[in-house]
Amino acid sequence: MTIETLSICTVKESIVLSDYLKPFINENDKEPSWDGFVYIYKDKNCSKENLKGRLAVQVKGKEHKDLTKEEISYSMSTVDLRNYLYDGGVILFVVYLAENGTKKKIYYCELPPIKLRILLAEAKEQQTKTVKLKQFPDDNNKKATIFLNCLENCQKQASFSNATLLSLEEIEKEGLLEGVTVPITAVGIEDPQTALLNNEVYVYAKIKGSAIPQPLEMIPMDMRTYETQAASITIDEKQFYTQFQRVRSASSTKCILGESFVIQSENSTSPCKITYKNSNKVRVLAKDLDFMLSYLEKGYFLLNGVEMPFDYDGADLSNFNIEEQKERLQTAKDIVKLLDILNCQKDIDMSTLSTQDWSNLDKLIQAFVYHEKLTGLNPDLPLIQGLTIGDLRFIICPKKVEGEAGAYYFYDFFKTEIQVSFESQTGEQLPISQYFVLKTSELISVDNLRCDAILPSFKKIEKHKETFNRANWFMLDLISAYDLSCRQEFINTAKDFSEWILSEDNEDIPLHIKRLNHLQIIKRIREFSLDEIRELYLITEDSSATEQVLVGAYLLLGQQAAADIHFEKLTPEEKEEFKTFPIYRFSENY
Asked: How far apart are alpha carbons 582 and 325 in whole angstroms?
């Protein structure tokens, strides 16, 4: 018996064991590129009514002593590959034969049109192309799954064998993409994720106006699925996490707790491997390192009440010095406490901090976490001080310690009342809220900001002729801060300011200005009501309205042409001034 005949017999004997497959492969077949077909059925009753289709097969044989490999490479003629493409696809088998054919191992490769196109494109003008093949499974359901999926992909891709295919980027750019699918069919596998990860898959794009999905000229490699699982993860009744992430591939499963702790298993029988790596993000570190140290100390954690013991033998702790890690954890907890005290919800990447950043951080921890005075500082620090830590910026108030030069207590600017005044045009010293010093750029950049403290501070100051003008200008800064950052707290606070200004009986600000400012805030929050639209039209019909007011009203109404007409009536100085107002954002010329 020749190598080719023995190889074909080996493949037939393996395939015929599946209830869903019937091989019709001729040992003496003389076709140029094929050896026969395998008929695929959708039911164990292999009747004509249950026939799904048939796939061409090609079988090659090779004497080889090493039968331990799970994957091999085999050189194929590009003429054969092109013939397979024209015929709509094939499954290639290579049988390794050892010890005069008494020992055998089957390898296979699915070759639907898309994969053949990729192989031929890579081959360019070469006469041969190396093809990678995987070990053919012994499980009969897995065999059927391979043929079912290959048949489905060959059928879906047949009409695209020689067509020009658009890339996913091109389809998206042209606005034609309706969705993306990754079809998979499995026999005897209840978990679709398992079928997806353990079989070759192809990606199809649903294109607007077409009933046939277009295959993408790509083959996803190293497929992984990501699943967030709700769970209670506790140690000594302290809950560390309320969920974990499960990442599955064909060869392993990872359970990720937090961002630093991973339990990985290669298969159902192998022991789990535990890995932990400290995060550079301080909030993450404070939680994850606390969990790791508690897990080590107690020897277990509870997952939904089920004890998960620590495998001390399987964990590599050679680079994990417990005493050093406890010190690191305390530092992380101090930093997190500081951030919380200062109302900062952001995190700090410790790997980016400079020496000066660490120095500032130490000062703030000493002052706010441990309530200690700071010494050795400049004896003439300003009343308001800005300190930066990496990308974060805090405004604090140093207060001198009586009788100690260079000694201070630090206070949060947004929790401390400071008497602030300004000089009016007539030379008077008038009181003003300490927060008036915060312009748009400061509002956006300050990380210990407390918007809820600002309006009460303005209201608390004794009213004078400049009270509402100053409040109005600050409100405009809040609106601009919202436009630049999209932070809801800014527009909400601006709305509160506007309602306060409107509710007060004062004539410092013209009514039209008050209403336009209020309506431009509303426009940023929601659509106008009919009454609000009516109010804007009444403003445009008011003969006393200034040209700037008319421009603003028409911009809020979305009538750009009318706004442009009145804008042209402004002086050059007024035009430049108007462009600085946040209402100008509604202009098409912005």
From this structure: 50
Beta-bridge partner residues of 245: 228, 256
The percent of the chain in helix, strand and coil, each rounded to the nearest 5, is 40, 25, 35
Per DSSP, helices labelled H in 420-571 are: 440-445, 454-460, 467-485, 488-503, 511-525, 530-540, 547-557, 560-567
Residue 435 Cα distances to 212, 345, 480, 484, angstroms:
62, 21, 16, 19
Closest CA to 385 of 437, 441, 307, 317: 437
What confidence score (pLDDT) does residue 42 get? Answer: 86
The CA distances from residue 469 to 228, 472, 575, in Å, are: 52, 5, 21
Residue 269 has pLDDT above 80, yes or no: no
> What are 545's two structure tokens?
């309205």
Q: Would you say 408 and 381 are in contact if contact means Cβ atoms under 8 Å apart?
A: yes
pLDDT score of 222 more than 80: no
CB atoms within 10 A of CB 569: 13
Q: What are phi and psi of 49, to 5 degrees?
A: -65, -25
Please, which residues bridge with residue 97 across strands?
63, 104
| Residue 485 clears pLDDT 90, i.e. is over it | yes
Question: Is the separation of the CB atoms in 109 and 91 below 8 Å?
Answer: yes
Question: d(Cα 444, Cα 480) in Å, to the nearest integer?
Answer: 10
In the chain, DSSP finds a helix count (H) and a strand count (E) of 18, 22
Q: Which pLDDT band, with edges at 50, 70 and 90, does 310 fall under?
A: confident
> Residues 353, 361: contact at Cβ < 8 Å?
yes
Question: Alpha-carbon dihedral of residues 442, 446, 448, 453, nearest 10 degrees?
Answer: 20
In Å, how far are 129, 469, 490, 545 from 584, measured between CA atoms? 63, 20, 18, 18
What is this structure's pTM? 0.73
Contact 182, 203 (CB under 8 A): yes
CA distances from 243 to 68, 231, 232, 259 (A): 40, 5, 7, 12
* DSSP 8-class letter at 20: T
User: Of the candidates 421, 419, 495, 509, which has an alpha carbon nearest to the alpha carbon of residue 465?
Assistant: 509
Contact yes or no for 136/150 (Cβ under 8 A): no
Q: At 330, which helix (H) or strand (E)?
A: helix 322-341
Give the Cα separation of 358 and 454 in Å (integer): 30
Q: Are 435 and 474 in contact (CB under 8 A)?
A: yes
How big is the CA angle at 544 (ends 541 and 547), to the nearest 5 degrees?
80
Angle, nearest 10°, between helix axes 282-298 and 322-341?
140
Alpha-carbon distances, residue 456 vs 206, 394, 434, 452, 466 (angstroms): 56, 21, 11, 8, 17
